[in-house]
Amino acid sequence: MKTAQATTALFVFWLVLTGSFAPVELISGALLSVALGAWGARVLWPEDSPAITPRQALRFVLFIPHLLASVLMAALQVAEVVLDPRMPIEPHLMNHRTSFTRPASRVLYANSITLTPGTITVDVDDDTFCIHCLAERFADEIATGELEDRVAHVFEG
Fold it and tell me: Which residues touch 152 (CB under 8 Å, ≥6 apart)?
């Protein structure tokens, strides 16, 4: 069941990204989705953890627009920093502790940070994330815990 859920989600994501229904694209997407779905079900949702519920799947779908908005806003902030003649770049390495109980939450959080321009997840050690930020204000945004709360709402709640 977990493999089927992961495979379906990945295949739908593939269709959205490619926007193509060409046979080669569909076959490639299906094969990759099955392979990654089997791997994801085994690694992200071990046998002793529950599968993703329909409620969590809906929450994830609702999380995506927020993530896209965050990526867009951060991209504008990075452009502002880079285009400023003074180049106010202040690299900052921070450790941020979370209270996630599920591996899927940790993966979603780490990838959401890395997808957001100006920040990258360098290392994850249990509940501590080592994050590199382009400037102090990016670190401040992570420290607010808003992204952490949104990720927790998807898989922890």
Answer: 99, 100, 105
The three-state DSSP-derived secondary structure of 21-81 is CCHHHHHHHHHHHHHHHHHHHHHCCCCCCCCCCHHHHHHHHHHHHHHHHHHHHHHHHHHHH
Tokens of 17: 């990204």
The list of the chain residues with pLDDT below 70 reads: 45-51
Tokens 């382009």 belong to 134
* Predicted local confidence at residue 50, as pLDDT: 63
How many other β-carbons are positioned within 10 Å of the β-carbon of residue 93? Answer: 11
Cβ contacts of residue 7 below 8 Å, gap of 6+?
Answer: 33, 34, 36, 37, 38
Local structure of residue 134 (DSSP, 8 states): S
Which single residue is written with the structure tokens 């940070």?
A: 113
Which residues share a beta bridge with 132? 93, 120
Instruction: Determine the pLDDT at residue 51.
Output: 67
Which pLDDT tens digit goes with each residue over 92-114? 899 999 999 888 899 999 999 99
Look-up of token digits 């529950």: 50
Residue 108: strand, helix, or coil: helix
